[in-house]
Amino acid sequence: MGDFGKLQTINITHLLNQLARIKAKVEHDKSTNAEDMELLQRTLHQYDHIKARKTDHTTRSTGLSRKKLSKSTITSGPFLRKALPSHLSSTEEERRVKRPQYEAGETPEVYSSFVDAVARFLIGTVGGCALIVPMMIMVLHPSLVKSVVVVSVAVVS
Fold first, then answer.
1. Cβ proximity of 50 and 12 under 8 Å
2. CA spacing 20 to 30 A to 27: which of 12, 98, 105, 111?
3. Where are the alpha helices (DSSP H) in 30-112?
4. Where are the transmembrane segments (predicted)?
5. Residue 16 CA to its chain's centroid (Å)
6. In whole angstroms, what is the distance from residue 3 CA to residue 43 CA?
């Protein structure tokens, strides 16, 4: 992290401490006044502004906006990036910045919003089925043995 990033981190920490002091004062007094609300509003505005600039600075230094999938969808992401054509799995920015790798057909480093949406849809559908299917099996022709087997299989898988 460069000097600029360190200064921003110090400034953000200072603002967070100031917000904590404001919160503690409001909780202690069990009320607030116009002056406290003005200070809170200014502090939150400064915090939002600095956080936005920090994100902006990080994006500019890498040349790409790094929209990666959350950990819950990473499991299907690499498969989708490899299985789908590169024009669907790479973002416009990555195609522009890494033109030779894109034309060579390499898997992209950054997920496109299409791959993100497909991965989330697939995981949501599979998760829903994992809940509904065992329930449907147990409801149709209920028996104790079948319920125990279905619950055991569902828990193990």
1. yes
2. 12
3. 34-62, 71-74, 77-83, 86-89, 92-97, 99-103
4. 121-140
5. 22
6. 23
107 φ, ψ (degrees, to nearest 5): -70, 140
Residue written as tokens 């809170």?
40
Residues contacting 105, CB < 8 A, separation 6+: 86
Q: Give the pLDDT score at 86.
A: 67
Q: What are the structure tokens assigned to 96, written together?
A: 């522009």
Extents of the domains making up the chain: 3-62, 71-156
Answer whether 0.90 is exceeded by the pTM: no
Tell me which of 84 and 58 has the higher pLDDT. Answer: 84
Q: Which two tokens stand for residue 149?
A: 């087997």
Kindly give, in sequence order, each residue whose CB lies less than 8 Å from that of residue 32, ignoring residues fewer than 6 positions away. Answer: 26
Cβ neighbours of 39 (radius 10 Å): 17
